[in-house]
Amino acid sequence: MKRTRYTKFNGDLSSAVGLEDLMQALSDFFLDSGFQDPMSRFQQFDGDQTMDNLREAIRQALESGELFDDEAQEKFDELDEPQIEELIDKIIAKMQEQNLLNAEQPQQGQGEQGDGETDAKFEVTDKGMDFLGYKALRELLGPLGRSNFGKHDTRYEASGVETNGSTKAYEFGDTLNLDITATLNSVFAREGYNATPDPLHPGTLNIEYSDLHVHQADYQSSCATVVLLDCSHSMILYGEDRFTPAKRVAMALSHLIRTQFPGDTLSLVLFHDSAEEIPISQLPRVKVGPHYTNTREGLRVAQRILARQTKDMKQIVMITDGKPSALTLPDGRIYKNAFGLDPLVISETLEEVSRCKRSNIMINTFMLAEDFALMQFVQKMSAMCRGKAYFTSPERLGSYLLMDFMNRRAKTIH
Questions:
Q1: pLDDT value, residue 66
Q2: Is residue 1 part of a domain?
Q3: Which has the higher per-residue pLDDT, 264 or 113?
Q4: Is residue 8 one of the residues assigned to a domain?
Q5: What is the distance between the terminal CA atoms of the chain, rounded to a whole angstrom?
Q6: DSSP per-residue string spanning 303-336
Q7: Is residue 2 a part of any domain in this protein?
Q8: 43 domain residue, yes or no
Q9: Are residues 405 and 271 in the same domain?
Q10: Quick check: 335 and 329 in contact, CB under 8 A?
């Protein structure tokens, strides 16, 4: 009888490193927003995503003792410098093979003196971005006990595949999910159970258009969301990093919508001196700046995006920590007032909020500051468009925003 003997696999250490664990350990490095945090493990990199910095970040993660079991850690501690460098090379190669990272080769002739090589760069791929969003979602919703999400139910009904037990007469345009029992009952009620079959087609029933009945399904709404993210310099000033937590929340929301609400759409708009839409996949590389807060321009860009959508619900989720301090003038120049709450800026911003209301766009604002005058402005803005205002902190932002999104999506739409 053939016997199989099992022994412990003794491969190289790169196989003992879980890439998911490594991505999680490097998340602060990937999402650096320019905040000078002396307690950060990756502070010395200053947010530069070069291959040299990536290698050093991986080295620090390996040396932290968080990625290996006891036996693998002992083997790692025995490695000399060339062996550690080789191990890091293998790990980076695996990250590229798994499509978590894209590495760019250095370009010739673009150094400070016009020759030599620039530093090789890397970028987090969409797959890597999605994984970080998944981890952020788990971290944000895990303490709340919310691990499963449904679709966005409403009180309305429509013909569909997932039935709720009720039926209706077929109307043109309905999904032809035929209720055979109700249809035959309609035939028998009209012609009787002893109805004479069609003489030209014996053995058939004379089913008319009015006899057709289809199953009812709960109507589930779709939603178009624009995340309006403040990236002015105040988001990393005053001894607190408010921008990186906001980036994590946007990533988590993107993962939630992609996996649980596939009929929804999510767009991202950054606003500062001006405003622009960027792909969600570019979010890890975004840093703060310029300095001012052009809330009105952000709302205008968001409205243009939502105008292209045909969803049942349209909403803007605005994350900010400052009062409007800039305004784009008709000739394209930027009017700025560093003190904020300038009457001209406020009036134009509120007029833009009114346009959102007329377009049936809800604005929910998540404010990361508690200045009294600012709170009054935000509350007025929220009241105008029937939205909500949350005055929260970077630590609680994720829980507030995600739970508000799910609660909003579960409510009846009108």
A1: 86
A2: no
A3: 264
A4: no
A5: 72
A6: HHHHHT---SEEEEEEEESS---EEE-TTSPEEE
A7: no
A8: yes
A9: yes
A10: yes
Rounded to whole angstroms, the Cα distance separating 87 from 270 reads: 39
Q: What is the pLDDT of residues 252-283, one digit of tens each?
A: 898 888 888 888 999 999 999 999 999 988 88
- Enclosing H/E stretch for 55: helix 51-63
Distance CA(261)–CA(409), nearest Å, equals 10
Q: Judge if 81 and 227 occupy the same domain.
A: no
Please give the Cα distance from 159 to 173 (Å, whole number): 9
Tell me the whole-structure pTM to 2 decimals.
0.71
On whether both 145 and 167 belong to a single domain, the answer is: no
C-alpha to C-alpha distances, 10 to 13, 71, 93, 94, 310, nearest whole angstrom? 9, 11, 20, 18, 56
Same-domain status, 147 and 102: no
Is 267 found in the same domain as 390?
A: yes
CB atoms within 10 A of CB 401: 23
Segment 294-299 shows an average pLDDT of 96
Q: Which tens digits make up the pLDDT trace of 182-228?
A: 888 888 888 776 555 556 656 667 888 788 888 766 555 789 999 99
With 0-12 / 13-18 / 19 or more C-beta atoms within 10 angstroms meaning exposed / middle / buried, residue 181 is exposed
Residue 170: pLDDT over 80: no
Domain that holds residue 328: 139-152+221-410
**Do 162 and 191 belong to one domain?**
yes
